[in-house]
Amino acid sequence: MVELMFPLLLLLLPFLLYMAAPQIRKMLSSGVCTSTVQLPGKVVVVTGANTGIGKETAKELAQRGARVYLACRDVEKGELVAKEIQTTTGNQQVLVRKLDLSDTKSIRAFAKGFLAGVMMCPYSKTADGFEMHIGVNHLGHFLLTHLLLEKLKESAPSRIVNVSSLAHHLGRIHFHNLQGEKFYNAGLAYCHSKLANILFTQELARRLKGSGVTTYSVHPGTVQSELVRHSSFMRWMWWLFSFFIKTPQQGAQTSLHCALTEGLEILSGNHFSDCHVAWVSAQARNETIARRLWDVSCDLLGLPID
Asked: What is the pLDDT of residues 153-182, one digit of tens each?
């Protein structure tokens, strides 16, 4: 009997999910940025802006009058998105710049020109020999932030918003295996990199205290995006649960909340989900690990350790 019921349940599962979808979707898509702040004269850099959450964030910030730089690896695709946003918002100050976060040379070139996070992929390395998840999701953004930091201080009040994930709860920082060369699991590698995002945000906030630059990490929710392109299992799961996965527009709300909401400066370093401060794992609250990760990151990127 059990053997007969199991395949039947599999067949019924999509139907059951569909019936429950309105209530579950409402629960999962809560949290909307209510700020009415306008951004004329402000400059914004959005990484991964040619798709998903990044695109929706860029569009909303452009709608509010900011000059928005779409920092994309695929410039041609970025140009198409820029034209779409320009047409939709009427803001012509939407610009595309080449940025490959898996290549430190590209990051430095982007920062020089400006001043003048991948999911479950097979084991691979960046142009600089870093494991892809930690290299792109953490080290790439770490270096970009470092290179733009003086300009951010000069432009204060300024904000830095790092997109992390609820998946950080499964993450650990294994300093003896940071590059995944001793053991590797694609899903856990993603979780480790998302934990690194939160630790970086907290340590950055500590170092920037009093500078006028504040920083926040966010969990956007489970969002329809291209992040699962490396995993056929995750693509199937995304399809199965698509009834209550957030749209990119919904997923962008917490990032927008942290970028725009007035009076948020006192919460610098905090982690947000659904536009509210969210709980993080014990490891994500460990200041010793955060400081060591900062020093190790500087060492890997050839930056001075202070």
From this structure: 999 999 999 999 999 999 999 999 999 989
Please state the pTM of the whole predicted model: 0.82
Q: CA angle 139-144-145, nearest 5°? A: 100
Which among 18, 123, 190, 216 is annotated as catalytic? 190
Please give the structure tokens belonging to residue 8.
Answer: 């039947």
Give the percent of the chain with pLDDT over 70.
82
Q: Is position 69 annotated as part of the catalytic site? A: no
The chain-wide mean pLDDT, for the chain, equals 86
> Which residues are CB-contacts of 96 (< 8 A; sequence separation ≥ 6)?
69, 70, 72, 75, 78, 79, 81, 82
